[in-house]
Q: What sequence folds into this?
């Protein structure tokens, strides 16, 4: 059981790190421009994702709600 707790904490930390890198990429793209080494076209990808969700109507809204719920500030353990 201790192994599962350790895996959960690793997944939580990696998810948190990924979200921090995403936020950093968005800020850098807004300040510098969209051609950032390592991060690529983050803002263009996000805008394409939002456009795709918007064109799907209610299904896109439900999907967005599920994604936001998954990334909300919840405790894993």
A:
């Amino acid at each position: 059981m201790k192994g599962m707790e350790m895996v959960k904490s690793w997944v939580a930390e990696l998810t948190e790190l990924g979200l921090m890198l995403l936020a950093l990429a968005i800020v850098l793209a807004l300040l510098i421009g969209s051609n950032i080494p390592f991060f690529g076209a983050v803002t263009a990808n996000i805008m394409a994702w939002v456009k795709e969700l918007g064109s799907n109507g209610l299904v896109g809204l439900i999907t967005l709600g599920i994604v936001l719920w998954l990334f909300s500030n919840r405790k894993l353990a």
The first helix runs from residue 2 to 31. The chain has one domain: 2-70. The mean pLDDT is 77.
